[in-house]
Specification:
Helix content: over 70%
Number of helices: 10
Largest sheet: none
Distance between the termini: 63 Å
Order of helices and strands: HHHHHHHHHH
Number of strands: 0
Radius of gyration: 29 Å
Length: about 260
């Protein structure tokens, strides 16, 4: 019995060796496709303002989604448009330089956005539309109090901090300020996650296209449904390996710099 099992293992060894060799070659080929796709994506990111375009699109959409909050306090805001809010945001953030603003890394962009919000809170009446969009999820009554500005008496003198109206204004400003910070944090997390998903999707599509090109360039594979499935499977595997390749490329760039 032991001898028969030993003979079986001996007979199986060449097949396992061949399988190991083929599997290793396949993984190496899939990894090479992943590296190539990520290298192409990195080149496009370096040569084209992809991040700038994407972040501008997301910020403009975010502003549009927040405009109904401005409509809730129309008496103060006066129904601003998305273009007006964006222009106000860019003026407060980077003196109107939209290209520089949207080209920033998302953490720096949100840092500038937060600085713009703090500046707007100093003079809320002049930046009511921008603040209304930033604090779109805040209590409308608290937002209306903030946008009305610091409470003053009949002669225009600022009320003392102990006055009930001043106390209400301070509380509303604190609430609105906290909501603005939470909104900017949520925006940063959302854009970061979505950007990574878009890169992964691009890597997957490129990997499938590269695998398809490799299969068509190969003379050993015949066109057919099985070849089509093999190509898609290889592209998907390479696409999933692409993030590892991206990390390796990033590590190499850090070493070079």
């Amino acid at each position: 019995m032991a001898g028969a099992f030993s003979q079986f293992l001996t007979a199986l060894k060449p097949g396992l060796t061949a399988l190991e060799s083929n599997l290793t070659s396949y993984v190496v080929a899939a990894s090479a496709i992943g590296v190539t796709s990520m290298a192409l994506i990195q080149t496009m990111k370096d040569q084209l303002p992809l991040r700038q375009w994407y972040q501008k699109m997301r910020l403009c959409r975010w502003i549009t989604e927040g405009l109904p909050a401005a409509d809730a306090v129309t008496a103060v805001v006066g129904k601003p448009t998305a273009t007006q809010v964006e222009a106000d945001m860019l003026t407060l953030a980077l003196d109107g330089d939209g290209k520089a603003f949207y080209s920033l890394d998302i953490d720096k962009l949100c840092g500038q956005l937060n600085a713009a919000a703090q500046s707007a809170l100093q003079t809320p009446k002049q930046h009511a539309g921008f603040l209304a969009v930033l604090a779109s999820e805040a209590d409308p009554n608290a937002l209306a109090l903030v946008l009305a500005g610091v409470p003053v008496d009949a002669s225009g003198v600022v009320l003392p901090i102990t006055d009930p109206a001043a106390v209400a204004y301070t509380g509303a400003r604190t609430q609105v300020g906290q909501q603005i910070q939470r909104a900017i944090d949520a925006l940063q997390l959302s854009i970061t996650a979505d950007w990574q998903v878009r890169l992964q999707e691009a890597a997957l599509v490129l990997s499938i296209l590269l695998a398809w090109g490799g299969v068509h360039a190969s003379k050993s594979l015949q066109p057919g449904f099985s070849t089509f499935l093999f190509t898609i499977f290889t592209g998907v595997i390479a696409g999933f390996l692409a993030p590892v390749s991206r990390d390796l490329i990033a590590a190499l760039q850090n070493l070079r710099s």
